[in-house]
């Protein structure tokens, strides 16, 4: 069996050593006498899996003691609703910065709860860039500012957080979480579905500042109230045991790579190589403005939709998986998450050069 070059946008490639470890431990976890799929979520074994995962994440990302780490279900999409249900008062306002389909969806859910102001949007430019700082029209009275750090579908990424003064900052970091260091102390809340860059589908990581919890109004359904999960340390009900176990292994792997600074450097090298191939020769065209380019999701076009179809067909026949752009935008998208090896990028670049030579 041969593994393909996996450019999927999510669920996505995982580190091979992590997959090998899962295989090794699948029948019997050390000390447990059974598979991770069979243990109780109240067992000592799972207790230590959960605690380890939390501690590793705290170390790796430098999560300060002021912030809680939660492992929830419902995907990033449930966070679109939980966030306003907990923190947007009926009479309040929340600022949303729109940089793509996911931030639009987040804003749509918040509108069901309270008033949403669009602090900036690049929709008119087909979301080809991140807004400049001077374009942000922030309301100093807003309950929070929400932004999406990496736009999985449009291939753009914030280089640094927007400056929001005293207004709490909230980020959907689903598709670049753990791809680079982050100053967690600047955020009131960060959430990320694990299946892009942190693990398998089934768990969503939420990091929330403790002092923000006091703003939550009573009366929410128990499972939708962040305080439930803080109080019960993500063990109010049965958590996604297997997904948390795998996230723990990914975190261990990232630590062994030298931490997030080393991971970020490797990611910059991979993306740099692919963007250089796109920019040379005039055959390929990147869709994002250069200073907004994502290191995680690289989106580009060919001279015609017909050539794109041929490109994607031949790429697939050559072992490149997951390259079609999102169904809403078309084109080509190569997702270069942490676990994608440089060898896959190098192989893609070679394939692109040969393709351009044949069809240019
Ligand atoms: C994939 C993605 C989502 C949706 O995640 P689900 O876990 O499927 O709900 C939300 N935001 C961003 C930025 C994403 O990339």
UniProtKB/TrEMBL annotation:
Annotated binding of pyridoxal 5'-phosphate, by residue: 76-77, 102, 152, 172, 195, 237-238
Cofactor note: Binds 1 pyridoxal phosphate per subunit.
Name of the molecule in the record: Phosphoserine aminotransferase
Job description of the protein: Catalyzes the reversible conversion of 3-phosphohydroxypyruvate to phosphoserine and of 3-hydroxy-2-oxo-4-phosphonooxybutanoate to phosphohydroxythreonine.
GO molecular function, a single term: O-phospho-L-serine:2-oxoglutarate aminotransferase activity
Location of the Aminotransferase class V domain: 6-347
Organism: Chloracidobacterium validum
HAMAP family from the UniProt entry: SerC_aminotrans_5 (MF_00160)
